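Student: Please help interpret what follows.
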Amino acid sequence: MVDIPYDVWKHVTDFLPSDDVKNLLTINHALFNIAMDERYKSSLFGSLFHPSTLLSLRRLSDPQVANRVRVFKFIPGHLFRLLKEGEESASLQASAPSSTPGSTSLGSHSSEQPSGSNRSRRRHVIRGATSSTQRFGLSTSGTTGRSMGSIIKQPPIAPDQALEQLTIVMANLTSLITLQVEIRGEEHYYMADSKALIFDFTWPAIASSLRNLELRIPMEDMVLVLPDHKETALTRLESLYLRIIRASLSTAEQPIILDILLPFLTAHRASLRSLTLDIAEQTDLSVFLLTAHLPHLREFKLKIPLASPTDRRFTALQSFFRSHRTQLTAFDIELLATFTHQFADQTFFDQDHFTTYRPKLQHLSITTPSHSASMKAYILQFRWTLVSLRVHNSHRWSLELLRTLVEAFLPTGTLKRLDVAVFEFSPELLVALAINLPNLDVLSLDIESVIPQGTTYSTSEAQDVPQFCHVMGDVVFSQWQLKTLITTPLHVVHAVRALYKKAVVRSLPNVTNFSGMGRKAYLETPVFI
């Protein structure tokens, strides 16, 4: 959809009586603002070849449009790479007539890699879009070189021009709620003080509006990306996502954590409610887990590769849980198998760092490569407070195992949502869940097959019907409070799948939402559900 200029809107109103325009002006203005907010709600800056990047630079240069953006995804690696190549190309051309053994070469960029001192140095870089862009090399035509111009595809906008416009855009995002920054490990080497200056224009503009910050960046670049909390405080920051990798395995993690990350968290400890740590295999955040204390933290999510039970990344969890045990209401853990460690320990959740009791825990999500016998006992220690439970792994739950789990929730009646992967979807499964979880509102099942299989003759249908439908015809869950049922697609032919859906809908009269659709729409849709 193209932008509709104001004169077009005015032309439309010329055809309406003036009284109608006056009477409807307030309503139309409100609806127009809602529509525009929805249209410009999210935006992206990525590769200069991406159409969305060019659209963002064009649209968001207007403060009236940029003010409507609520979610901004910022992936500056491609721009920084082009700028770096432009600098190196200009340096190479300048030194070519009088080349000496000590002159700058194309690969000599190690001295410009970020370090701890960059944080203080970049504060003295001249602020201003025009002056900052003058520090960078040539335009696109100069970057590629005369001999390579016909080989290398040039972006539709010169890198230095894109940087200048980007600086204006970032300063215009005054109502931003969510900022997502992604810098890949290999892109770290294109970062420098002058390029990171773009973040200095961003933080003051969004300091009073930003609530969610997602950083997928190398640890080495935190000094350049995170704002100096002494100069700029994100007063409304509630959620922080950190996908932390190291661009170089030789990077010392502890100084970055102690000097950059922890001071940033401490400065925002009064507002932070949610923290997500996505830790790479070779990254050690044990110092962070041992030291951090966020008094108002409610949600903690941890994505971590498997390691030895004695690995200090796991042992540090015990200290973190103990210092936050009385306040955590949600915990999400995802364990990833690695080449060196597989999830084979059946006592994994019996370790000390998982036995710390959290009396207010209401939401628990566990994702593991396979099932652990200790998982059931770990879950049941929270059965008196859990409102939602999600358990996913490559090993699905059998009916017997799942029944023993949900039976323990019967006396509590607290569980409202269950999300689990099972081998078989059957009437017996629904009966077990309805009996033991009478107050369940949402049930999400990852299904592998439907049982009982086979067919039987139905006198009411005057034809053979699946045995599953025949058995379901004898069961009606009229007392079950379930309102939403979500299932994965059933891999059967459409005619059989339609009979399955009809039987399930008839047996669950209180369910109003089936995989995101109403009862009638669910039965009529040909979509593979």
